[in-house]
Amino acid sequence: MDVSSDPYLPYDGGGGDGIPLRELHKRGTHYTMTNGGSINSSTHLLDLLDEPIPGVGTYDDFHTIDWVREKCKDRERHRRINSKKKESAWEMTKSLYDAWSGWLVVTLTGLASGALAGLIDIAADWMTDLKEGICLSALWFNHEQCCWGSNETTFEERDKCPQWKTWAELIIGQAEGPGSYIMNYIMYIFWALSFAFLAVSLVKVFAPYACGSGIPEIKTILSGFIIRGYLGKWTLMIKTITLVLAVASGLSLGKEGPLVHVACCCGNIFSYLFPKYSTNEAKKREVLSAASAAGVSVAFGAPIGGVLFSLEEVSYYFPLKTLWRSFFAALVAAFVLRSINPFGNSRLVLFYVEYHTPWYLFELLPFILLGVFGGLWGAFFIRANIAWCRRRKSTKFGKYPVLEVIIVAAITAVIAFPNPYTRLNTSELIKELFTDCGPLESSSLCDYRNDMNASKIVDDIPDRPAGTGVYSAIWQLCLALIFKIIMTVFTFGIKVPSGLFIPSMAIGAIAGRIVGIAVEQLAYYHHDWFIFKEWCEVGADCITPGLYAMVGAAACLGGVTRMTVSLVVIVFELTGGLEYIVPLMAAVMTSKWVGDAFGREGIYEAHIRLNGYPFLDAKEEFTHTTLAADVMRPRRSDPPLAVLTQDNMTVEDIENLINETSYNGFPVIMSKESQRLVGFALRRDLTIAIESARKKQEGIVGSSRVCFAQHTPSLPAESPRPLKLRSILDMSPFTVTDHTPMEIVVDIFRKLGLRQCLVTHNGIVLGIITKKNILEHLEQLKQHVEPLVIRYIRSHN
């Protein structure tokens, strides 16, 4: 399948390791023997010709990097700089610049991430309020800012002021009544559709990679996969603009996941300013890990949670040095965001809460029940969303992304407007659900029947019977819960920037608030029950419904993503509720256990598998008893393994082999008779080296002998000049024997980041195992399909 067939599917194009598993059976066995790359642990890699061949050692699009070779290149570069730094002051300066470049690039990434996040927050708030009205005194103010300076607001209607005009007041001159309601309804739908249409159009025309969350692709890129343009400047620009539009349209999505993508784009762009990172794909991924931490830091105002998120959820390779730089990038990004103060509350956190009541041991039971709900929601959402995304890919509906976005936005806007809780911006909804009912709260969620004997306002308001406003709010919240569950399934994955953190937290917060109010009323009316009698006296403030909303939000997000440690830290940083870390831990762990009972994959891993990305999940256990011989290519029915000989092939022979096959590399053997392994040569390096030799070296023709050996064999005097290609040969390719258990092979691939390894028997090359072969094998085992391999090696022993 070609990339151009659908510009939104980066995983459906290219060659090598980028071929989706779902396409393997269509391509035949000949293609599946793709040799993925080279493993080099020797210094021969950089000990090239006197004049290095430009382009050798680089990677094609939709291919996997060679981690071992990249680390070797970096060590050699470091040795070269250290050996020269004492020669002159200039070399010493270059050495210091190289040493500090890592800190400089993460500083720039943090600064850019914080600034862009602040800009996105401010613009999204303004455009969200634009759906309801406009501030005549200052058009750039949102609703809250417009009424800050007004002296005509009242306590009950603090959001109403003469400076803020609804669209009904501006168009038909009515502030109340059916006509006003209908006009505001129409304008709400108009703006929602306009924002959604503009967002999807910009994505489709300018940057197809700007759609979606971005986290599945970031995880795949950090594991070593190359997706050209995914972290480019056009993607950054369009994702920033369309993220604001998508959030303002009212769709059931969040900006937190896409902010990680935005931060990684910043990290990728800034890494090109420093040769240490621009020329080394493995080093560049260290910057991207730090950028991921900065992205979560500005998304939630949670710098420590961002570092843990990068470590637990997205990073494939996370050395201690990257931990420090991730911490620093998150710190810088959070500092910039705090300086911008986009929320206008002089706080970094998004949902700051201040509860006055401690939690009690009995409450662990409803907290665990919320964890069960979160796990069930996560399992349901993953299955439903993946089923819908798979249907979108396999039907004509997926060919009309603009129409899909317009339909989803129209349904969302039409259903959301009548319900005040779905009409609210999702972040504002979560904030209201988290908030404890104090004496100054005017929300209907706080419409309790007050004790007429209370003479003074205190922080700890005792539990009271619910009033009509609370019961009305519960019904509205139940409808909002159903609406959010359904719409989030269909919204995540459409062709606009769409995050999942905030919608999942909203669903959990709604469920948690309903449970909290139920427990509160139970404690009020049945305070003499043994479960309440010891700690909940009459007139005491025992239950905090906002706490239940916070725990429910964490549980539902944990059920969807299967995060644990980083999620708990993010939530308590997000709310400032450090005292309630035990309930959060209990709920998150329960949601993970319940979700894992239905399937161990989180939503991001499920989308990685759906898209066919070559990602080996380190969390997945391999429990089968297959051997390397069962997985290696070629199989008995396949053509023999394509190999190069050490000094018996001509330039024309190699060019013919390259043109006739699609493999990405070839084992080099001593001779056809001995079949003993000498090394491994990449297809790309061979092509570049031959083209370069034809241009720069005289006498290189099609009949020139190609020599991979250290010494050129003696040739007849009339023979054309031989071509020496030992410099591009990997002299130490990674090998395993045919009897090596696949459990060990899979572990080697995960921990070393291999592209392929060769399979030998007594030093004789038998075949090759690529990363894609392993993924295909794992997929077959998941589906309980026996590998179609005849273990002919065992039969010979």
From TrEMBL:
**Annotated TM spans:** 100-124, 188-210, 230-251, 258-275, 287-311, 360-382, 402-421, 473-494, 506-527, 547-572
Q: Which family does it belong to?
A: Belongs to the chloride channel (TC 2.A.49) family. ClC-3/CLCN3 subfamily.
InterPro entries in the cross-refs: CBS_dom, CBS_dom_sf, Cl-channel_core, ClC, ClC3
How does the entry describe its membrane topology?
Multi-pass membrane protein
Record-linked CDD domains? CBS_pair_voltage-gated_CLC_euk_bac, ClC_3_like
Q: Name one GO molecular function term.
A: ATP binding
What are the annotated GO cellular component locations? Answer: early endosome membrane; late endosome membrane; lysosomal membrane; plasma membrane
Q: What is this protein called?
A: Chloride channel protein
Task: Give a yes or no for keyword Membrane in this entry.
Answer: yes
Q: What does this protein do?
A: Strongly outwardly rectifying, electrogenic H(+)/Cl(-)exchanger which mediates the exchange of chloride ions against protons. The CLC channel family contains both chloride channels and proton-coupled anion transporters that exchange chloride or another anion for protons. The presence of conserved gating glutamate residues is typical for family members that function as antiporters.
Q: What is its main location?
A: membrane
The organism encoding this protein is Grus japonensis
Annotated CBS domain ranges read 632-696, 729-788
Could you list this entry's UniProt keywords, alphabetically sorted: Antiport, ATP-binding, CBS domain, Cell membrane, Chloride, Endosome, Glycoprotein, Ion transport, Lysosome, Membrane, Nucleotide-binding, Repeat, Transmembrane, Transmembrane helix, Transport
Q: Where in the cell is it found?
A: Cell membrane; Early endosome membrane; Late endosome membrane; Lysosome membrane
